[in-house]
UniProtKB/TrEMBL annotation:
Record-given protein name: Nitrate ABC transporter, permease protein
InterPro entries with a match to the protein in the record: MetI-like, MetI-like_sf, NtrB
Location of the ABC transmembrane type-1 domain: 105-285
Species whose genome carries this gene: Solimonas fluminis
Pfam family, one: BPD_transp_1
Lineage, opening ranks: Bacteria, Pseudomonadati, Pseudomonadota, Gammaproteobacteria, Nevskiales
Annotated Gene Ontology cellular component terms: plasma membrane
Stretches the record annotates as Disordered: 15-36
Family statement drawn from the similarity comment of this UniProt entry: Belongs to the binding-protein-dependent transport system permease family.
GO MF terms held by the record: nitrate transmembrane transporter activity
Bilayer topology annotation: Multi-pass membrane protein
Length: 297
């Protein structure tokens, strides 16, 4: 009897606790909160931005320290004030050879574009031919190996003797120095093509034009663009040295003219401008190469 009474005493408790279990709130979500995601993004941005800033800070610090021991090297503050003055009117024209730094940079970029474009028109097709036909590769490889290590400035007298003018000579130097990476990288891309592709083309009896457009060109685009990126960097490097010797309007001549005026702060500003333009050109070509690189898609 007592057992029955105990069972009856327990039943109301179980009945009353059932609705309470139904009203309990759901457990919180286990995913990261919005604040934690923002904190993670800021931490990733800091890791990407802080190291370059630290490197630049060290460079400026060393520069400021060295400038205190030199009578001719201006410090960062004097150079910054000179840059503000230069970029307050970068496109002034006071004469045929007296123009702002903006016009000088644009003139140099125009020469680079012409020399680089001519090198691409000649070097890329030649690279395809050398990679496709072993006889041509054996014939021209010694010539390329002979001419490629020649200093850019060694070609300048040849250009002046042939073209009798400074502008075509500078463009010729850019052309002859930037053509080699395009030839070699394009030929390397063609040579790296799997032999199975060519066997299939032979079975299908494809013409050389079909082989080029359907097999060689799509497969070698990453190599071609890598060669173009290297060639563009060389072209921008070469034009500054060429313009120092040929004169006229251009960032290289502008640097040499400021050296004749013993204006070291303007020279340092020009170095920063040259490096920034070269960095932008390289970054643009790298982005273009990544866009067309099927290996990273």
């Amino acid at each position: 009897m007592s057992a029955v009474i105990r069972l009856q005493a327990v039943e109301p408790d179980t009945v009353t606790t059932a609705p309470a279990a139904a009203n309990t709130p759901p457990p919180p979500e286990s995913g990261p909160s919005r604040a934690s995601r923002i904190a993670g993004g800021l931490a990733a941005a800091g890791k990407a931005v802080l190291p370059p800033i630290m490197g630049l800070a060290v460079l400026v610090g060393v520069w400021a320290l060295v400038s205190t021991f030199s009578d001719y090297l201006p410090g960062p503050r004097a150079t910054f004030l000179a840059a503000v003055e230069l970029f307050s009117d970068p496109f002034y024209v006071a004469g045929p050879n007296d123009m702002g730094i903006g016009w000088n940079v644009l003139k140099s970029l125009g020469r680079v574009a012409l020399g680089f474009g001519l090198a691409a028109l000649v070097g890329i097709p030649l690279g395809f031919l050398l990679g496709r036909f072993s006889l041509l590769s054996k014939a021209f490889n010694p010539v390329i190996s002979l001419l490629r290590p020649v200093s850019p400035l060694a070609w300048l007298p040849i250009g002046l003797a042939v073209f009798k003018a400074a502008d075509p000579a500078a463009i010729f130097v850019i052309f002859i120095c930037s053509i080699w990476p395009m030839i070699l990288n394009t030929a390397m891309g063609v040579a790296a093509l799997p032999q199975d592709y060519m066997n299939v083309a032979r079975v299908l009896q494809l013409s050389e034009w079909k082989i080029f457009t359907k097999i060689l060109l799509p497969a070698t685009v990453p190599y071609v663009l890598t060669g173009a990126k290297l060639a563009l960097g060389i072209a921008w490097l070469v034009i500054v040295a060429s313009e120092m010797l040929t004169g006229g309007v251009g960032i290289g001549f502008w640097v040499w003219d400021e050296w004749n005026n013993l204006n070291m702060s303007h020279i340092i500003v020009a170095i920063v401008v040259i490096g920034s333009v070269g960095l932008a050109l390289e970054a643009g070509m790298a982005k273009l190469a990544q866009r067309f690189d099927y290996r990273h898609q």
